[in-house]
Predict the 3D structure of the following.
Amino acid sequence: MKDKIHIRKSHNVTLLLYHIVLPAKYRRKVFSGEVTKSLIESCGMIENIYEIYFLEIGSDNDHIHFMVQ
């Protein structure tokens, strides 16, 4: 079974995880289902361009959570 959390290179193994919480300005309730879906698609494009992996993306009405490697 391949381990997706650890990054294995020729001379090292790394495990760096970042939990990022981004609230909306003034905690307004702006993150609807459409906005969250668009955000997840944008994060997929970012993964393809850069060596960044979004392990989890969660949203509430007034903030977004990212678990990024």
Q: What stands out?
A: The chain has a mean pLDDT of 89.
